[in-house]
């Protein structure tokens, strides 16, 4: 299985967003990770549909859109129109998760579910076979630059076991505090895709940072 990297544009330079998107186009990055925050589900506000739409016009790789918002069903169609290829919703934000996943798929997008650090893997038992991906938060969502929560590596292993036991084809993505110190352990535990923001965009050589993660 290829080791995927999805750099988070939350850490990009917003005055030079086109430049940073073009850098990712030329890099070994597989996807572009876009964090959408509403100031309600998480205590921060990031960016919304106009920015996603603008990025989609320049991006040459799939847009991996992570909705950290309440009642995400309201915006599924809008994010599809804005250019999302993968749409991730939070388990904690969905009252009818199965319905939300089917709704996302009805628009031709890959459907993913994210779990906050305190949310246990077994809650996905009855829906894991419907998912294209599970995103495990390795920090508390809402802000970039946080420290990685070590327990996440164990959760990756638990999730991998569930995926195997159910013959699910879901990928495992990890987001939060990912860098060269934990990437290898996460891939070895069963992760398929790592999201990295600060590690990539605050690096002196973002191309090298992405390559380092992929080859961990």
Describe the structure.
The protein has a single domain (4-214), classed as Alpha-Beta Barrel (TIM Barrel), CATH 3.20.20. With 216 residues, it is of the alpha/beta class. Strand 3 (63-68), helix 3 and strand 4 (86-90) form a beta-alpha-beta unit. It is built from 8 helices and 8 strands, in the order E-H-E-H-E-H-E-H-E-E-H-E-H-E-H-H. Helix 2 (49-58) packs parallel to helix 3. The protein has helices at residues 17-26, 49-58, 76-82, 97-106, 152-166, 183-189, 198-201, 206-214, and strands at residues 4-7, 32-37, 63-68, 86-90, 110-115, 133-137, 171-175, 193-196. It has an 8-stranded parallel sheet with strand order 1-8-7-6-5-4-3-2.
Give me some keywords for this one.
8 helices; alpha/beta; about 220 residues; eight-stranded parallel β-sheet
* Shape designation: globular
What structural category do the secondary elements indicate?
A: alpha/beta
Low-pLDDT windows of residues: none
The proportion of strand residues reads: 15-25%
Top-tier CATH class: Alpha Beta
Number of helices: 8
**End-to-end CA span:** 14 Å
* Strand order, sheet with most strands: 1-8-7-6-5-4-3-2
Q: Give the strand tally.
A: 8
The major beta sheet can be summarized as: 8 strands, parallel
CATH homologous superfamily (4th level) name? Aldolase class I
Taking Cα atoms only, what radius of gyration do you get, to the nearest Å?
16 Å
The CATH topology corresponds to TIM Barrel
Question: What average pLDDT do the residues reach?
Answer: 96
**Helix/strand order:** EHEHEHEHEEHEHEHH
Q: Give the count of structural domains.
A: 1
CATH structural architecture = Alpha-Beta Barrel
Overall helicity: 25-40%
């Amino acid at each position: 299985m290829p080791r995927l990297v999805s750099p988070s544009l939350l850490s990009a330079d917003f005055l030079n967003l086109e430049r940073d998107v073009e850098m990712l186009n030329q890099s070994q990055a597989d996807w572009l990770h876009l964090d959408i925050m509403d100031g309600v589900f998480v205590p921060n506000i990031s960016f919304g549909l106009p920015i996603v739409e603008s990025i989609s016009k320049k991006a040459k790789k799939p847009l991996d859109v992570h909705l950290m918002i309440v009642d995400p069903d309201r915006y599924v169609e809008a994010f599809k129109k804005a250019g999302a290829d993968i749409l991730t919703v939070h388990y904690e934000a969905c009252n009818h998760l199965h319905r939300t996943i089917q709704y996302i798929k009805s628009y031709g997008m890959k459907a993913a579910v994210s779990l906050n650090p305190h949310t246990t893997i077994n809650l996905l038992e009855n829906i894991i076979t419907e998912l294209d991906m599970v995103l495990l938060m390795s920090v508390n969502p809402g802000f970039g630059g946080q420290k990685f929560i070590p327990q996440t590596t164990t959760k990756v292993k638990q999730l991998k076991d569930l995926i195997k036991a159910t013959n699910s084809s879901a990928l495992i993505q990890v987001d939060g505090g990912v860098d060269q110190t934990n990437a290898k352990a996460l891939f070895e535990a069963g992760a398929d895709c790592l999201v990295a923001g600060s590690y990539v965009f605050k690096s002196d050589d973002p191309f090298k940072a992405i390559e380092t993660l992929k080859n961990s």
